Amino acid sequence: MSGQVNGVVKVYFNFMRTWMTAKDVSLLHFFNAKLRCRILDAIIPRLTHLASAGGTIGSIMGVYGWGILARRPQMVQLSLAMAVSSTISHSMVHVLKRQINRPRPELRLSDIRVFQVPICAYSFPSGHTAAAFAIGLPFAWALANGPHTADIWSRIIMMLAYSIGFSRVYLGVHYPSDVLAGAFLGAGGAMLARSLLTF
User: Fold this and answer.
1) Domains of the chain as residue ranges with CATH
2) In this structure, are residues 134 and 161 in contact, taking their beta carbons and an 8 Å threshold?
């Protein structure tokens, strides 16, 4: 009896994996090909670089410098939280990339549009998306408690993080599930940093 149950469970999980993979590819095709637009083709490759290593470090150093120059210790603390958050999420991304070894879409699918953006060999999870959320969430949380204009800026920052996640699929360098996992890792790093630090 237990063998039959195990067999049913195995069949179910194989079905779900096949179904989810098909949905992943279908969504990738939609965002990468059906939403194609000359304006997006020009903007998206530049937007995605905001969450590169240079963009991430630059954001942290910018907030730190702002805090020092303006003599605002809470901004210095925020920069520390952003650094802790991004370090945690970045470490998890690299561990998972090497454990899962999921090839990039362009290595598996011949019918996607490819852009000239630097990438490593592995797809899951999205490091750029993790970085965007690891940096964006602490910043947004810090601003959300401020005046009305600060709250607007916190929403803009989060829209930017979502846009970077979208950009990775639009560029054909990640599957949607890679981006979703990256967002969870970035948010997890941000929440852990928030529990360790006050900002």
Assistant:
1) 28-196 (1.20.144.10)
2) no
Distance CA 177, CA 16 (A): 14
Question: Is the Cβ–Cβ distance between 98 and 121 less than 8 Å?
Answer: no
Q: What does the alpha-carbon distance between residue 59 and residue 73 come to, in Å, rounded to a whole number?
A: 17
Q: pLDDT tens, 57-103?
A: 999 999 999 889 988 888 899 999 999 999 999 999 999 999 988 88
Query: Which stretches of the chain are DSSP H helices?
Result: 2-29, 38-48, 53-69, 73-100, 105-108, 127-144, 148-170, 176-196
Q: Give the Cβ contact number of residue 125 at 10 Å.
A: 28
Asked if 127 and 93 touch (Cβ cutoff 8 Å), the reply is yes
CA distance 139 to 154: 7
